[in-house]
DUF4398 domain-containing protein (Sphingomonas crocodyli), 108 residues
Amino acid sequence: MRTNPICRLMLVPVALAGLASCDGPNEKAGRKADQAAAAQSGSNYTGEGVNERLGEAKDKVERANADAADAAADALEKRADEIRAQADLAADRLEEQAKAVRKNQAQP
């Protein structure tokens, strides 16, 4: 299913806002690890520990990789559309040539 490019552009800010506001799974796991380490050492967890920041970085890398894969897939779809259009033009030319051959053969 093809989507309108304008619709995609309109969804980008919404998607980015949603991603920016929510923690990814690696960040959440890092936060839990930081909280457990703080509890084990008897100190208070103040937020944004080392593991949480590392998890956030991993989430960003995963999102960037997913975005890159989406961009590559979009480029391949565009190339497929171009090849399909070229093939359609070539097929139309061949059909016209076939009609001309039949027309010339029918004339005495």
